TrEMBL record:
The chain crosses the membrane at residues 77-100, 107-133, 139-172. This is DUF1700 domain-containing protein. Pfam families: HAAS. Keywords: Membrane, Transmembrane, Transmembrane helix. It comes from the Bacteria.
Length: 197
């Protein structure tokens, strides 16, 4: 594979990353080619040593998604990290994706239930004293506050579980599929200096 073919395939695989990030990555790989050519290697040898550009692009996009999750910890970053890891194609999607979708669906259902419980509690707290709630107005207010507090607790607990789920998926990918930094950073060899007597 020539340098131009490698870079074109790499650029194609990096579509979706921010432009500056993609340009920096391409510049790094251009430098790899320049260094290899300066060392007397052919473009084909350098390309073979760097590996499949499409796989490199998937790994780099996955790493970008994982780094974004590590920095932001929001639903958008979580989705980006999950889809980036699944996009590697390294995880058996036929097994993992249905399991993941079931867990995500269950968590989403519980989130909706917590939101509904919060609004029901608010409705009981506000309307209960005026509609003859059993136990009187104070019982209605306390019952409404209790339901709202329970909903907030369930929502917080589900948020923690969701963060653990995303972190677990990232951990699984890093553990099982040479992700990512160790595979992308060049190995450094300690320099040997001779001591003169």
């Amino acid at each position: 594979m020539t340098r131009a073919e490698f870079i074109a395939r790499l650029k194609n695989g990096l579509v979706g990353l921010p432009t500056t990030t993609a340009n920096d990555i391409v510049a790094d790989y251009e430098t790899h080619f320049e260094d290899g050519l300066a060392a007397g290697r052919t473009e084909a040898e350098v390309a073979a040593a760097l590996g499949d550009p499409a796989r490199l692009a998937r790994e780099l996009k996955a790493e970008a998604g994982i780094q974004r999750w590590a920095q932001e910890k929001n639903p958008s970053a979580a989705a980006a990290a999950v889809f980036a890891v699944l996009g590697l194609g390294a995880i058996d999607i036929l097994i993992l994706l249905p399991l993941l979708m079931g867990v995500v669906g269950t968590l989403f259902g519980f989130f909706i239930a917590a939101i509904a419980l919060f609004f029901v509690g608010g409705g009981i707290m506000v309307a209960g004293p005026f509609v003859g709630f059993p136990g009187g107005p104070l019982a209605a207010i306390l019952m409404g506050l209790g339901l709202m507090a329970g909903a907030i607790f369930v929502g917080a607990l589900l948020t923690i579980v969701t963060v653990w789920l995303v972190n677990g998926l990232v951990w699984f990918a890093r553990l099982h599929y040479r992700l990512l930094k160790p595979a992308l950073e060049p190995e450094t060899t300690p320099s040997v200096t001779g001591a003169s007597a």
